[in-house]
Each structure stands twice: as C-alpha cells, then as structure tokens.
Amino acid sequence: MKAVVAGGGVGGLITALLMKKNGFHVTIFEKSSKLGGRLSYVKEGEFKIDEGPTIVLLPLMLQSILNEAGISDEEYELISLNPLYKLHFSDGSTYTKYSDFEKQLGELKSNFPGQESGFIRFMKDMDIRFRLGKEQFLEKTFVNRKSFWTRMNVQTLMKLKAYRSVSQSLKPYFTDERLRQAYSLQTLYIGGNPYDSPAMYSLVSYSEHKHGVYYLKGGYAKLAEVLERALLKAGVEIHKNALVQSIESEGIKAKGIHVNGEFHEADYVVLNGDFPSVTHMLEPHIQKKEYIPSSGCLLLYLGLDKIYEEANVHQFYMGADFQKHMKEIFVTKEVPEDPSIYAFHPSVIDPSLAPEGKSVLYALIPVPSGNHIDWDAQSGFIDQIIEKLEEKGFPGLREHIVWKKVKTPNDAKREGLFEGGSFGLAPVLFQSGVFRPQVKPSKLDNVYAAGASIHPGGGIPLVMQGAKMMVDVLMEDVNKQNGVSLNGKVERSVRTM
C-alpha cells in the first residue's frame, strides 16, 4: 500500500516511521529544503540555536513514541534540568521552580511564606486531574464526535474545570498574583491566553514539577536529524523542495496528490501542514470554519562572545502588568508596552552550540499574530528587549553580541504558519479536545492529518502523540477494509505514559 505524507514536520516524520513499520510504502513531500518543521536551527558560522521549541516536557511520552518508531534512547540525550527555571518579577522578587517537592516547599517558604499549603493542594488536585485528562483526552481521538459526549467525558470536563480559565482556576491555590502568573504562563508554550484558555491547560505547570523539564543535548532540533536518519534507514522516500498543491479525489476517496505539477498516486494521504493553511485541499469535503490563531512570537537569536555561567538554561522576566501584556497580544493586538520575556541560554550546559568560550542566547516575546504590525519599524522595541535582558539577567549584553537575527510573525506567516501564529490553533475551549480538528478531518475516507492544530494539540510530545493516534486509526480503517476483526473502537486509548 502506498501512503504519501504532505509535510515533513515532526508529526509527519513520526507518521512516516510508524506507517513504514506497518508495511506501507511511504513517501514524504516537504515544501522546504529541510525536514522538521518547527524543529529547526538558526545558524551563523559556528553558532547554532533552536529556531522554535526549546522546553522538553513529558519525557516519558516522547521516549515511548520514539521507541515505537524504532529510535532507541541511545540516539539522543535528554538532560534533566534542576532547577527547572527561574522567574524574575518586576518588583525584584524571584521564584525558582524545582522538580523536588520538598525543595519547592522551601523556595515558597523563603520567598512566598504562607503559600506552601496552596501548592500542596494544587499538586494533589492536579495529580488526579492529570490522570483523568490523559486517559479521556490525550489518549483518545474523536473521529466520531458524537462518541465524545458520554457521561464520563462530561463529568471529566467538569472535574477539569474546563468552563474556567487557567488563571481563574489558580485562585483557590495561590493568593499571591505573582504565583498565579508563575503557574499560568505555560499556556503561552502553546500560544494561549492564560486568562482565556480552559483550566485543563493548568496541567502543564503541574507536569513540569511532576515529570520534569528537560533539555535535548544539541538542541531540540537535533531530534529532526535523528528522525531523518531513522527515515532513511527504514527506506522512507523523501522529497524536499516539493510543494503539495492539491489532492485529487473521486467520490469520497483521494486518488493521490499533485506536487510541483506532477501527480503522485496514493492509497492513503496524510496532511502535516498547519491545518488551517491546507484546508483548501480538502474542499468540498470539509465544512468551512473560522479558526482562531495562536499568539505570535518575536524571536531574537544572539551569538555572544562569552557564556553567562550564572544564568539558568531557561528563565522568565515578567513585565509589571502581565494581564495587560496578555490583553495587548490577544485583544487589542498591539505591540506590547512592557512585555514579559522568556530567555534560553543552553550554552551553560551545552558547549556544542558555539565556538569555545562563546555562547548563544534566544529571547522570545509573546506578541500578536497576524501581519498588521510593521515589525521592520520596531527597532526601538527590539532595543528595549535587549536593554531589559541586560538589566535583569545578562549584564553588559550589548557589548558581547557578535551575531543577531530577528524573526517576527510576518516571517512565520510567510513560512506557512496560520496567521503568523507560532503554535497552530489557539487553545481556546472550542478549539480543544473534540472541538479541535481530528485525525480524520474531512469526509474523504483515506485522508488523515497530524500536526499542532490537530487533536490533541501543540507541543512536540503531543504532536507526536497525535501522529501515533492517527496511525492507530488508519490501521483500524485498513483492518476494517480487509475484514479483520477489531478489538476496541476508533476512539480507543493509545497509551504512552
């Protein structure tokens, strides 16, 4: 059986490996000159740094899926970070997060006395909710949307407080606004507003403590290289600079795809582009829908002539008014006046990213998606960011910069990301779970989808989990067509943790 994968992002690569393992002849068509999608490097001479994702979460899920795809733990190295990261607030106070429970209580006692009991209750409650949410939502697809509306799922939604925002859900646990920020900003990892994203996403901050925060040696983009080697070894055919233009169908069956003006026949088609940007290929077999994009990012990539040894791998510098910053991103959609900043300085533990004695630094500022802002005219804003980094954690930064590159939402949109949003669809309630595009996104029987905008959502481990579930659904469809009896249903669990 022939399968074509339109797009070489991490979802497409995992899909290809798993389908090859199931006996398919698999061909990947990637429009750019490299595989990996958001998993990519920015390079300048001997400097290199991750272009997109940097924070490795849910390590057991990631490792389990890689193992199933034929990649051993020895082919890459995950480094556990402790502390996880440090937050710096505008009033000069700080909060360091740890994976060690007792150490975290000590940090709270020192810097936020009286908040310890709230943290204990938070972890206890989230432990229960994580198990519920994982089983009911992260490990199931909802190809048949009606199958979602069971009494158990509705009860789970209520227990997960899906009707409340992440920020609201933290009020019973933390009375200090700074801690509410510290445990709600994680929605920004997937481009969501903590004052709007449903409370189930508060499980991300819980998972950081419970499962740890990791760094992939060589950078997260190293994973794309590992996957490409595995694909070539497995015999998957790869075509780069190959733009998939359309799907040719007959009735409710796709016959193949058109790539750079040529037709390629296929028994199964998998779409791995940012979903709202590829829906035109599914018309008229899909209902038109308006989607909400995730937030955009202003990204600064810096090469430095020194290493800031006292820095953490990850740190956050919070603006004076976090809620105002979120409003500027998601409501008024303007350049933030006093933004919060995430800084990534992997050279403190990884010397492979820069020449000896030198380093790389990555700064991410959440900004509005869309192309209505002229970022070329925002040099003053970029100077403001560098000044804040210099003041808060990287003294003398300007004089140590030997290389700088800036990436904006306009660049992201040109690369094919929906409305320049960096994380696919925004994680609002009606774009989550059953309401999110599913692994079978249209009425075409043999067309499937994987990626950040497909259930279960964004973040590298979840995209990989979505690809795994997609292949599981596809194989059940194959078995049905071949008259093989099935154990379970299409929405059955796909366990990875």
From TrEMBL:
- Kindly give the InterPro entries that the UniProt entry links to this protein: Amino_oxidase, Carotenoid/retinoid_OxRdtase, FAD/NAD-bd_sf
- For this entry, list what GO says about its biological process: carotenoid biosynthetic process
Q: What are the residue boundaries of the Amine oxidase domain, all occurrences included?
A: 11-461
Q: Give the Gene Ontology MF terms in alphabetical order.
A: oxidoreductase activity
Q: In which pathway does it act?
A: Carotenoid biosynthesis
Q: Which Pfam families match?
A: Amino_oxidase
Q: What Gene3D superfamilies would the database entry show? A: FAD/NAD(P)-binding domain
Print the keywords alphabetically: Carotenoid biosynthesis, Oxidoreductase
Per the similarity annotation, which family is this? Belongs to the carotenoid/retinoid oxidoreductase family. CrtN subfamily.
Q: What is this protein called?
A: Phytoene desaturase
Q: Which organism is it from?
A: Metabacillus mangrovi
Gene label: crtI
